[in-house]
Specification:
single chain, 70 residues, mainly beta, Rubrerythrin, domain 2, three-stranded antiparallel beta sheet, two-stranded antiparallel ribbon, 1 helix, globular, binds zinc ion
Length: 70
């Protein structure tokens, strides 16, 4: 597992959702602003019960970047 896979995804600048590089709009918030400068991944199954999701303001289940931006 030495291959770098992080750049297979980009993060939504508005809600931090991780989408594939090819995606044009964010499936979570509909934004078209993305960045490949992100780090850390959190997978949210139940935003209601996840303290981290609440901390990050995540309301929709999915895969998110913990840190967005350079
Ligand atoms: Zn978004």
């Amino acid at each position: 597992m030495s291959r770098k896979t992080s750049k297979a995804f980009k993060a939504c600048l508005k809600c931090r959702a991780l989408v594939t590089i090819e995606a044009e709009t964010c499936p979570v918030c509909g934004s078209k602003d993305f960045t490949t400068e992100w780090s850390g991944v959190i997978i949210v199954f139940d935003p209601e019960k996840s303290a981290v999701a609440k901390l990050l303001g995540i309301k929709t289940p999915g895969r998110y970047a913990i840190k967005v931006g350079a």
